[in-house]
Amino acid sequence: MELFLDTASIQEIKRWLAFGVLDGVTTNPSIMLKDGGYDMEARAKEIAQIIAPRPLSVEVYSNDPQEMLEQARTFVTWASNIVVKIPVLNEHGVPCLGVVKTLQEEDIRVNMTACMSFGQVVGGAKAGATYISIFGGRVSDEGHDAPRLVRESVEWLKTWGYRSKIIVGSIRAAANIQEAALAGAHVITVPPQFLEKFLDHQNTRATVRQFNLDAQKTLAKMQELRVGAKR
Ligand code: E4P
């Protein structure tokens, strides 16, 4: 299973990369805005260079298929590890599978994004998406069973030999990471604050604090014994 960071924060990317747990990064226009990536090209190039050869997903911002294709072709000139995010539908509900298929034929890797249903996963796999992003949090928001969707999608891809990888995004809590992992997600993309919580445990901190305290007491005792022996 691969772990991606869902962020455009250079500081967070460097931090998690140094921990050895990072397999890639995903962004979208909202993440770029939140993390100050106002010059999207400059920020994407910087991230791509830091994480290379790991993949960086950068999302198109248009409802028009032709514009999506043009943006995608431009993005991939920025760095060789850029993957283009294409929404499964545009905001009017028009499928963007033709864009996915064309880019795949041009050897441009696509992360087909904003997927919420099994049907969308099937469409993305058939169109040749390298990655298919299921937005777990947003699926759950509507009362549907996100882990089940992930599990059934992964099983279906395997049964029929499709090579698309399921990315689970829209992580809203540390527990969602475990749910996605146990549902068989190929990749989970996580905002840094939830990865932090996923690793943290107050009892671990308390245990280490106690060990450090007792080590200091042990050293003090040893010191006392040495002083006593010299007398
Ligand atoms: C991942 O690729 C998505 O961009 C992201 O996880 C969406 O998360 P959200 O539902 O919190 O916006």
Please give a structural write-up:
With 231 residues, the protein is an alpha/beta fold. 55% of the residues lie in helices and 16% in strands. The protein has an eight-stranded parallel beta barrel with strand order 1-2-3-4-5-6-7-8, surrounded by seven helices. α1 runs parallel beside α3 (40-51), α4 packs parallel to α5 and α6 packs parallel to α8 (146-160). It binds erythose-4-phosphate. Erythose-4-phosphate binds next to β6 and α7.
In short:
The chain is built from eleven helices and eight strands. By secondary structure, the protein is α/β, with parallel strands linked by helices.
What structural keywords apply?
TIM Barrel, 8 strands, single chain, 55% helix, 16% strand, binds erythose-4-phosphate, 2 domains, alpha/beta, 231 residues, eight-stranded parallel barrel
Class from helix and strand fractions: alpha/beta
CATH domain topology of the largest domain: TIM Barrel
Strand content: 15-25%
DSSP E strands, number? 8
CATH architectural type of the largest domain = Alpha-Beta Barrel
- The sequence of SSEs as H and E is EHEHHEHEHEHEHHEHEHH
What's the mean pLDDT score?
Answer: 98
N→C terminal distance: 61 Å
CATH class of the largest domain: Alpha Beta
Low-confidence stretches: none
- Side-by-side strand order of the widest sheet: 1-2-3-4-5-6-7-8
Whole-number count of domains: 2
CATH superfamily annotation of the largest domain: Aldolase class I
C-alpha Rg, in Å? 22 Å
